[in-house]
UniProtKB/TrEMBL annotation:
One Pfam short name: Glyco_hydro_43
Organism the protein comes from: Lophium mytilinum
Leader sequence segment: 1-21
Protein name: Arabinan endo-1,5-alpha-L-arabinosidase
Residues under site feature: Important for catalytic activity, responsible for pKa modulation of the active site Glu and correct orientation of both the proton donor and substrate: D163
Family recorded in the similarity comment: Belongs to the glycosyl hydrolase 43 family.
Pathway terms, separated by semicolons: Glycan metabolism; L-arabinan degradation
Reactions mediated catalytically: Endohydrolysis of (1->5)-alpha-arabinofuranosidic linkages in (1->5)-arabinans
Length: 350
């Protein structure tokens, strides 16, 4: 996201700086405000990614060769615009590409004067995956996108090449990806060409070895998203990630507490090490502080991103199940809330 790479300063008083954030146990129950009001085309939304140009917001999301919608405000009304890659990706990870392969988790950025969307191509439940990028000089309806194909990231039995996120800090293009296996990894893109991998070996930054309830498998951490901000004169780097199981049928839901939720760790460097509010490592200590979980009619929120709006407020956006509507894949909704970082940790607010 263009806005995800811009650090903004929250000027807090000395008294406020002395107020300690109440530690949140990584998977403790909590209460949160409902999603902000949002109208228009907000169904069948998975892994949204947002960017603004002029007076218009653009939303990219998983499925149907990457869907693009637009709106005059985050509240909508959102209107379907077009597919990003109507002919599909040039990346091939399976023989029957159109039938079995999904185009996933777009991540949009403005780099110089060109829009870049990083995306994943994957067969569900396997490591037959890859991450590519498409570019366009424009976001407007009817814009055409050039598919550059794979970034060239190396394959490994340790990770799955999905859920990309670019975080630009100075001259360095940090690149997050990963899901299941050993969860989330970080590398960099080429300093000269943001459509190519730099060659830097991917490093594991988030891993959870906790055995899931009702399963002989570890907790799933995925969908990493980096963000930075300055609090009381100190810059912090945050790594948001989705934890748990997404997209379960209503008659086969994950055990309570194992459903999708948004977690966070922070560090003094964009490369980590990331720790939670209790000081537990997100890599070796099963760390992660709970930012947003199921509550009221909101079930299994995740696939998140963070940006700063025109008013200078931090916004977290995500997909979720509205239990009043349904649990089917097509029923997933787009939602967003505001975040308060004044304690040094992100807290949902109205």
């Amino acid at each position: 996201m263009t806005y995800s790479i811009v650090s903004y300063s929250l000027l807090v008083s000395a008294a406020l700086a002395l107020v300690a954030a109440t530690p949140i146990h990584p998977r403790a129950a909590a209460s949160w405000p409902d999603p902000e009001p949002c109208t228009g085309n907000n169904s069948a939304i998975h892994d949204p990614s947002l960017i603004k140009k002029g007076d218009t917001w653009y939303r990219f999301s998983t499925n149907d060769n990457i869907l693009i919608a637009n709106a005059p405000s985050l509240n909508g009304p959102w209107t379907y615009q077009q597919q990003m890659l109507p002919q599909g990706s040039i990346i091939k990870v399976a023989d029957d590409q159109q039938l079995w392969v999904s185009k996933l988790a777009p991540d949009v950025h403005l780099i110089d004067s060109t829009y870049h969307v990083y995306y994943a191509v994957s067969t569900s439940g396997s490591q037959a995956s890859d991450i590519g990028v498409a570019t366009s000089p424009s976001l407007e309806a009817g814009s055409t996108w050039t598919d550059h194909g794979s970034l060239g990231l190396p394959k490994s039995s340790d990770y799955n090449l999905i859920d990309p996120n670019l975080f630009r800090d100075g001259d360095t293009s940090h690149f997050i990806f990963g899901s299941f296996w050993r969860d989330i990894f970080q590398t960099t893109l080429s300093a000269d060409d943001p459509t190519k991998w730099s060659g830097a070996a991917p490093a594991n930054v988030v891993y959870n070895s906790t055995i899931r309830l009702g399963a002989d498998a570890t907790t799933v951490e995925e969908g990493g998203f980096q963000f930075s901000t300055t609090v009381a004169g100190k810059t912090w780097y945050y790594l948001f990630f989705s934890s748990g199981l997404c997209c379960q049928a209503q008659d086969d839901l994950a055990p309570a507490g194992e459903e999708y939720k948004v977690m966070v760790g922070r560090a003094e460097s964009p490369t980590g090490p990331f720790v939670d509010q209790a000081g537990k490592s997100c890599l070796s200590g099963n760390g992660g502080s709970l930012v947003l979980g199921s509550h009221g009619f909101v079930y299994a929120p995740g696939g998140q991103g963070v940006l700063v709006d025109d008013g200078g407020r931090a916004v977290i956006y995500y997909h979720y199940v509205d239990t009043r509507i349904g649990y089917e894949y097509k029923d997933f909704q787009f939602g967003f809330n505001y975040l308060d970082f004044s304690s040094g940790w992100p807290v949902l607010t109205t």
